[in-house]
Design goal:
By secondary structure, the chain is of the alpha/beta class. Helices cover 36% and strands 15% of the residues. The chain has two domains: 32-86 and 358-457, Aspartate Aminotransferase, domain 1 (Alpha-Beta Complex), CATH 3.90.1150.10; 88-355, Aspartate Aminotransferase, domain 2 (3-Layer(aba) Sandwich). The protein has a seven-stranded mixed β-sheet, sandwiched between helices. It has a four-stranded mixed β-sheet with strand order 1-2-3-13. A four-stranded antiparallel β-sheet has the order 11-12-15-14. The chain is globular, with a radius of gyration of 22 Å.
């Protein structure tokens, strides 16, 4: 696998791309460069993370700072930093928990883990009687959900979407739809993991054009994406679960009625609906759970990333009543399954999201951001689409003046980075902005101006 692969089409970090050498030579200070070189010499090389782009010594609020003191507003953050970095309330809570109880073997109950489980079942949309399992990361959470779906239905097949990312394990890569995690000598993957084309109204895989002004033209397409999923469920006949991101982290927002139709198709086929909200849940899209505005409840909900407050790795699998059917199986059985430090991080993060109104804040700031981006980029050519949900925003570039959209996206990425904003490229051509929900409006305005200028320079 190449250390310098093609532009990032994954959930992970922005691919370094052909401009990396210029960035390394011209933008990195000596201390940052030295640490990047040490890192590259010690870690196995893999696409998307080694070698690294820079080296940081501090992360606080919306900011990361490199080894030479250069600061960046982090509009990527691997989707963990909803409450910002080093939130003082979380720092204090973890210090106190360290003094009280730092570890619990999984066969022993502890207060923080029980409280977090109770909290999540109380607020989760899976309803009364829900149960929880914790895992050390989102990929493991997806594995638990897949096992539970198999046990509960007696089936093993899944249907998921091409281009989706659900984790890097074999099961999660199998239901995922990105070639980077499914090819290059990695296979064969799990049997029975069927895929269909995703909803993507701005780039419809079925060839339908968006409605004038953007968005889906449902009168024309008649929601072909949802109808195809129903068709596959009916033809397969023995699918255990549909696994999906309710809002795709690209981002793509589902067309109206999409998830309600999928929910009906799952019910008719006897398949469970698993929602992966690992990168998008807990307020990022403007509601506590990203599927809430779309008229469908999952049977199993997987949370992660931000649940650990950008400090500790933590995921949660929440299953509705009636799915507590694996008492004689080991669905997860992870060493840190009931770790009190991890649970305290989850509890405190939930408190901060609630007490600071961060979901509501994301909705308000997201609306302002979309309006402002459209103003700033209005005079610029080569913008295919601007879309988002809450503070998950995408600017899709198009080919222009003989330059490919992917080349323009990479150029814009490095221009923004040089000006102090770290973001992400999704699917090669989408500049994805995902700032902490704690960002001040003035900081957001400044970052958007930097991004618009970077697009203009590209």
């Amino acid at each position: 696998m190449s250390a310098n692969p093609q532009p990032d089409r994954s959930e992970g970090d922005i691919n370094l791309g052909p401009r990396r050498a210029g960035w390394m030579a011209g933008a990195l200070g000596p201390r940052s460069r030295a640490l990047v070189e040490r890192d590259a010499a010690a870690f196995l090389r893999q696409s998307l993370s080694t070698p690294c782009l820079s080296a940081i010594r501090k992360a606080e609020g919306i900011w990361i700072e490199d080894m030479d003191g250069r600061r960046f507003m982090d509009f990527h953050g691997n989707s963990v930093h909803h409450i910002g970095y080093a939130h003082p309330r979380l720092v204090a809570a973890l210090k106190a928990q360290m003094d009280e109880l730092s570890f619990a073997p999984r066969r022993f109950a502890c207060e923080p883990a029980a409280e977090l489980a109770e909290r999540l079942t109380a607020i989760a949309p899976t309803g009364p009687g829900s149960r929880v399992l914790f895992a050390p990361g989102g990929s493991e959470g997806i594995e638990i959900a897949l096992k539970l779906a198999r046990v509960a239905t007696g089936r093993f097949k899944t249907v998921s979407f091409w281009d989706a990312f659900h984790g890097a394990g074999f099961g999660s890569s199998s239901v995922g739809g990105e070639a980077l995690f499914r090819s290059n000598g990695i296979g064969p993957l799990l049997a029975g993991t069927e895929h269909v084309a995703p909803f993507a109204c701005a780039r419809c895989p079925y060839g339908f054009d968006p409605a004038p002004g953007g968005g889906p033209d449902l009168d024309t397409c008649r929601m072909t994406c949802a109808r195809m999923l129903r068709y596959v469920l009916e033809k397969e006949g023995d699918v255990a679960a549909v696994v999906a991101e309710p809002v795709r982290a690209v981002p793509y927002v589902p067309p109206p009625g999409f998830w309600a139709e999928v929910r009906r198709a799952c019910d008719d086929a006897g398949a469970l609906l698993i929602f992966d909200e690992i990168p998008t849940g807990l307020g990022k899209t403007g509601s506590l759970f990203s599927h809430e505005p779309f008229g469908a409840r999952p049977d199993i909900l997987v949370l992660g990333k931000a649940l650990g407050g950008a400090m500790l790795p933590l995921a949660a699998v929440i299953a509705r009543a009636g799915l507590d059917v694996a008492a004689d199986r080991a669905l997860g059985h992870y060493t840190h399954e009931k770790n009190p430090l991890l649970a305290r991080a989850g509890l405190t993060t939930l408190d901060i999201v609630r007490d600071e109104g961060l979901a509501e804040r994301a909705a308000t700031l997201g609306t302002l951001a979309l309006e402002r981006l459209r103003e700033l980029t209005g005079p610029l050519p080569g913008i295919a689409d601007i879309r988002g949900a809450g503070l998950l925003i995408g600017i899709e570039l198009a080919d222009h003046l003989g330059r490919s959209a992917a080349d323009r996206a990479e150029a814009a990425f490095y221009a923004a980075l040089a000006a102090g904003v770290s973001l992400k490229i999704s699917q090669g051509t989408v500049l994805t902005l995902s700032p902490p929900l704690t960002i001040a409006e003035a900081e957001l305005e400044r970052a958007l101006a930097i991004v618009a200028a970077a697009i203009g320079s590209a």
